[in-house]
Amino acid sequence: MGLTASVLAVDAGNSKTDVAVVAADGTVLATARGGGFRPPAVGVEAAVDKVAEAVARAFTTAGVTAVDHVSACLANADFPVEEEQLAAALHARAWGTSVQVRNDTFAVLRAGVTEPRGVAVVCGAGINCVGMRPDGRTARFPALGRISGDWGGGWGLAEEALWHAARAEDGRGVPTALARTLPAHFGVPSMYALIEALHLEHIEPARRHELTPVLFATAASGDGVARALVDRLAEEVTTMATVALTRLDLLDEETPVLLGGGVLAARHPQLDDGVRDLLAAWAPKAVPRVVTASPVLGAALLGLDRVGASLEVQERVRAYYEQ
Known about the structure:
This protein is an alpha/beta fold.
């Protein structure tokens, strides 16, 4: 029989997967990184195969063959039925005695708090929000884009910037410097040329996300249209956080609100100030802060919560990732 560690932590996003093997005393025995986790694109089994490659390397380094508990925070686990399906797929790999799957936004939340209590808003390619209490109650949103009522995220911001810039150039909309700064980013002379290049895929569609930092830079230069989009994002982030706090009956208690993902972690002054000002007005007891710790730390802490690890053990894992 091989050695058994306490927790296998998995944080699997669309672009990369991080795993960690944690001993019962909180020692991080091994870590590994793998490819993106995209079940909607490749199917559940193929997506789990990507995770398995990283897990195999981590187990080999740690000198273990299994763990007591698998704590997996996964992108595209947006509904309980999807969490159950993914948990069954992970359980079939026999990596651990028990398996719990959560949406990957929970990893950002747990990484930023000393107990499983608070709200997190993540704004990266998309936008999502979750909340949790130590008694197990949670608040969450489907976060599937416009069909679930979402607005924002890096991809959505780029689309909005393109929309306003196109209309500014041809006269349907108000003037905005975005009509100049967006095409300039790709070295083309006009929005017309940029639209043509995107449509004919002379510029890869995936590169549209590069326009989000251009939007923020244009806003910082004083452009009214760009600034309005940033203000709307601040309102959206605050709305999600306030709704989650309300659902969990935390609005009247001092509660951490964690801000994560590439857009929020970039600390754009206008967005940062906007979120903090609106939270002060709508949820005065909320304590906002940006999370920069690796989300796999959150997955590990959720796993240690599940196995009843002491605060001392949890802090040992946190110290590893925050050193």
